[in-house]
Amino acid sequence: MRIVLNVEYAGESFEGWQTQPHGRTVQDSLENALRCIADTPVPTVCAGRTDTGVHATAQVVHFDAPVERPISAWVRGVNSHLPEAVSVRWAQPVADDFHARFSATARHYRYILFNGPVRPALLHARAGWFHRPLDAQRMAEAATAILGEHDFSAFRAAGCQAHSPVRRMRHARVARSGDFVVFDFCADAFLHHMIRNLVGALVYIGKGAQPVSWMAELLAGRDRTRAAPTFSAAGLYLCGVEYPDQWSLPGQGRIICTPQLALPVSCPEPESRSAD
Predict the structure, then answer these.
(1) Confidence check: pLDDT of 262 > 70
(2) Catalytic amino acids?
(3) I need a surface site. Which of 40, 66, 104, 242 has the fewest CB within 10 A?
(4) β-strand 106-115 against 128-130: which pairing, if any?
(5) pLDDT tens figures, 195-211
(6) Are strands 148-151 and 128-130 parallel, antiparallel or unpaired?
(7) Can you list the positions of beta strands (E) in 33-80?
(8) Is 243 annotated to bind ligand?
């Protein structure tokens, strides 16, 4: 039986999602816990392979259960074997042709940036930080340039293994909430470091180092070396994955934000998936 999980984790406790020989990843922790319940190795597949330090409020994972267990065993049972920084939120059986990565039609990410003169100790590893005042309106205007389908070569990591740099950005918003600047992005998929590189470029515009038009210029130039440095992973959250309605997943279409920061900024409504 194929099972789909919704997984939440604090990324500073792990060296990314993908399994590594040293075992300090989210996937390693989850598969170790699943093995305790199944009494045999259980390989997993996720919707989005997050980097070291990146958090998730709504990672989606599937696996093929090698044994029959109550659905509660894949939640409470697995959680009893997981470190405190990762938790399975729900589990549900799905048809064998469901795939956490390839069945997804969109991913939602949120970047939370604390914009104040002194770094915030209580938000260490949970929010990015920039000390100089940022103009959120300038950044919001610049972000409109990346909407639609584009070659995002200027915003991909040098080691990115994606076959194509072309992605379709459905939503890009920048909004201020007190001392926080919140960046929301939704696309069919993302390149390696793409969001952190986008945030880095927007911060350059927000601090006045570059004009609003710079975002469009970078996009057209397709040259990573001309863009801003990659921004910190600390404030980045995978907060939603969209799937066609046929899968009837819990909370489908609802974007799970970052409640621990209690930011009064609403998440974007997901687009209709019927056209996909």
Answers:
(1) no
(2) 51
(3) 40
(4) parallel
(5) 999 999 999 999 999 99
(6) unpaired
(7) 45-46, 55-64
(8) no
Residues 11-54 pLDDT 10s: 999 999 999 999 899 999 999 999 999 999 999 999 999 999 99
Residue 13: inside a domain: yes
Q: Are 134 and 207 in contact (CB under 8 A)?
A: yes
Rounded to 5°, the CA angle 144-57-240 comes to: 45
CATH classification of the domain holding 89: 3.30.70.580
DSSP calls for 172-228: EEEEEETTEEEEEEEES---TTHHHHHHHHHHHHHTTSS-TTHHHHHHHHT-GGGSP
The answer to whether 171 touches 184, Cβ cutoff 8 Å, is yes
Q: Which of 230, 223, 222 is nearest to 111 (CA)?
A: 230
pLDDT at 147: 98
145 and 43 in one domain? no
- The answer to whether residues 26 and 50 touch, using CB atoms and an 8 Å cutoff, is yes
Q: Is residue 263 part of a domain?
A: no
Helix segments in 6-100, DSSP class H: 26-38, 76-79
Instruction: Write the pLDDT tens digit of every residue in 67-86.
Output: 999 999 999 999 999 999 99
Asked if residue 174 and residue 55 are part of one domain, the reply reads no
- Rounded to two decimals, what is the model's pTM? 0.91
User: For the residues 116-130, what does the mean pLDDT come to?
Assistant: 95
The CATH number of the domain holding residue 115 is 3.30.70.660
Q: How many percent of the chain have pLDDT more than 90? A: 88
Beta-bridged to residue 180, according to DSSP, are 114, 177
Containing domain of residue 63, as a range?
A: 2-103
Boundary residue ending a domain (103, 131, 163): 103
pLDDT digits (tens, 9 = 90+) for 166-187: 999 999 999 999 999 999 999 9
CA atoms within 13 A on the CB side of 47: 29
Asked whether residue 261 is assigned to any structural domain, the reply reads no
